[in-house]
Amino acid sequence: MRIQILRNVIALIFLTLLANLFWMQIVNGHRYEKRSENNRIRLVPEAASRGIIYDRSKIPLVENKLAFDVVAIPLEMDKNNKDILFSRLGEFLEIDGQVIADTFISNFDFSFSPVMLASNVPRRTAFLIEQEMSELPGIFIKTSARRKYIYSEVAAHIIGYIGKMREGEYPELKKYGYRIKDVIGRSGLEKSFDQILRGNPGGMQLEVNSKGSIINILSYRPPVQGDDLHTTIDIKLQQLIHEEFNGAKGAACVMDPRNGEILALYSSPSYDPNILIDKSKFKAIGMILKDPNAPLFNRALNVYAPGSIFKVVTAYAALKDGLINSKSSFECKGEFRLGNSTRNCWLKSGHGWVSLRKAIATSCNVFFWQVGLKVGEKRISSTAREFGLGKISGIKLPGERSGVVPNLKWKRAQIHEKWYPGDTANFAIGQGYLLISPVQALKLAGVIASGGLEVTPCIIKSNLRQTQKRIADSKYIELIQDGMFDVVHSGSGTGRKAFVSGVKTFAKTGTAQAGKGKAHAWFMGYSLKNKRKICFVVFLEHGGHGGERPAEIAHSIISYYTQN
Hints:
CATH topology of the largest domain: Beta-lactamase
Low-confidence stretches: 29-39
Largest sheet: 5 strands, antiparallel
Radius of gyration: 32 Å
CATH superfamily of the largest domain: DD-peptidase/beta-lactamase superfamily
Number of helices: 21
């Protein structure tokens, strides 16, 4: 009986072994064969150089600078003397040997794969290490292309910067061919056009044995540099605006209204992207990240109350609906009674009897309060949206906000309150819940400059749109243009500081209440000389009056463009 049981146990064991062999060799044979192949073949990737970004005159805005990295090949290192090796290397790099050892452990992948120990070391340090290679077994100097942002703060918010992929980003990016330690665009054009700029990585396919030693190089594919980007930016104009702002908070945008080419887009305060891509400058990086003035923040794409530059929208809505014409006038005594409240015009003594042209030129609040109440929130809101406000402009830069163009339905949904006549009065002069970005204001300036055509801002030449849709009636736009001309060219205009001799400038100033502190200051418009046009928007956070410093900056922009 016992012998029979033993035979049965042995038979069961053999049956189990046979079943496992069948499972492994027949059912999963292909899978294990593939695993074995993967264990035999290793890939050592080689990153591609990123494409160059140019301005409109083919001036490079970035370059790929030769950099020296210190790497270790684990297979070629003396395993018993690693501490001595790292200590000796630390003398050249002026880093504690233990820090290098920790870096080696954290960056280690495979015994045959280079391990980054120090990146972008000075040329002299690299040469000294090269000379001592015999005493540093397994240590090598590897050259690579490192991004350099030539114009640093001047073009930071346009170009952006690059950085290593974060762990949480990989699952989404791997389907586009990215690898776990790839460098990717973090902001600006570097981010928006990352897949174009990054190129195609190359690398070696190695055959290794069970110990991880290299037996043979099976193949090598050289990396292919990324495609270049040709922008519409005039870097000299961009530099001029940078100097004019001198660190003041705000933004400025300049565009050709014929085709939407962005000639300048500047946000201030700015930052040096070269610092953010150099890990050794961790103190400087921390200062940028913690700066209360938020230099990384692109103010050209953020939204603010526009104030009186919005009055041109209210004016068009009233003209289109036939509620006013060029001869319509309202009396401004310096104040306006609405319900139980009294609102004061910015000119306490009043503007007297005011036509549309004079109302735009002097920015009379009383005129636009009365016109706005006639038009109503529904028509003001729909006109604003037709002109491109309250939605993304399409400029192809990350971080753009759509803003808010309110109406009765919006207030009920967001504020849970009814819409009051006071809301309409505020809306009519660009206050209240209304929020737009400087880029949207630039698009509005483009509608006025083109006589009613939609102009889509574009920063890359290949993305230029040649067809323009008419969104406004030119006969009403011309009446608004007359008032904007007087803003700069008449004695009572609010933007006379933008005047440039021999140039016709059409503008609108804006002063938007912004809670605590001084009001936000806007200056929006376009200039014309010998059939050459430019649209511009200058915005200063808490800058006071739009006819002061913003108009002066606009003067410099107009002078530059009409003289070049």
